Amino acid sequence: MKTKTFLITGATSGIGYEAAKQAVALGHTVIITGRTQDKLDAVSAELGVKAYLADSADLSAQFDLGEKLKKDKVTLDGLVLNAGVFYPSSFVEETPEQFDQSFAINTKGPFFTLQALLPCLAKPASVVFTSSIAVHKGFVGGAVYSATKAAFEGMVRTLNLELADLGIRVNSIRPGITATEIQAKAGMTKEQEQALFDSLQTTPVGRELVSDDHTGAILYLLDDASSALRNAVIEVDGGYCL
Ligand SMILES: NC(=O)c1ccc[n+]([C@@H]2O[C@H](COP(=O)([O-])OP(=O)(O)OC[C@H]3O[C@@H](n4cnc5c(N)ncnc54)[C@H](OP(=O)(O)O)[C@@H]3O)[C@@H](O)[C@H]2O)c1
Questions:
Q1: Ligand 1 in contact with 62 (CB < 6 A)?
Q2: HEC states along the chain?
Q3: How far is the CA of 165 from the centre of ligand 1 (A)?
Q4: Which CATH architecture has domain 5-235?
């Protein structure tokens, strides 16, 4: 893999953080974003990467980021649209505000992040979206989350057509259940988390996934080795959905 420049959104923990760490270890230049300044400062110092505060739900922050990168003459060979949340709620309890918040972060955010960063993308450039197995696997409390990821995946076909002349391709990974901060942020207790992970012992891989299980797929989609792929989905679920 030639050394390149990648921007990874939501890289202060979990899947995005591991991808950033491995990309840096391979000699790539990495820029990260997140929504929590302290965490950005810590990862920036640890990995030696530039970090920008850019809440996915704040569209002006995405366009400000695009302006900053343009000013610094940054050209991105790859963009990983990874920032996301899982705020579970049952169908009967979901409020319009919760519905809008999930879509703002998981769907509208990455859509406008890509639009805002278009001028910074190289020709060719690879965009990777972190989707979820939830697009085709039901979870109690996960209706809106599933829809946020399916909505973005639904747009990827058209993005591949509309951005082809710019040399931009878009593909996705669909992680299965992965032990990250997402469970605690979803309000799960340690016991609930453990029970969930224990239930995965019967899957082919026999365990919960860890963030680094996704790094290879992300780096492959960023690499020229996958340059013929458009709208591909790499499902990294340990066989959970078989
Ligand atoms: N873990 C799983 O089981 C699983 C399964 C399928 C798909 N996914 C997807 O994988 C992606 C990464 O999740 P993860 O499991 O690695 O969880 P994570 O450890 O919570 O990481 C999520 C990252 O996104 C950031 N983020 C959250 N909301 C944001 C916002 N509004 N603006 C900017 N950044 C924001 C987080 O920052 P803070 O730390 O400040 O919140 C963090 O850096 C998500 O898109 C998630 O939907 C995860």
A1: no
A2: CCCCEEEECCCCCHHHHHHHHHHHHCCCEEEEEECCHHHHHHHHHHHCCEEEECCCCCHHHHHHHHHHHHHCCCCEEEEEECCCCCCCCCCCCCCHHHHHHHHHHHHHHHHHHHHHHHHHEEEEEEEEEECCHHHCCCCCCCHHHHHHHHHHHHHHHHHHHHCHHHCEEEEEEEECCEECCHHHHCCCCHHHHHHHHHHHHHCCCCCCEEHHHHHHHHHHHHCHHHCCCCCCEEEECCCCCC
A3: 31
A4: 3-Layer(aba) Sandwich (3.40)
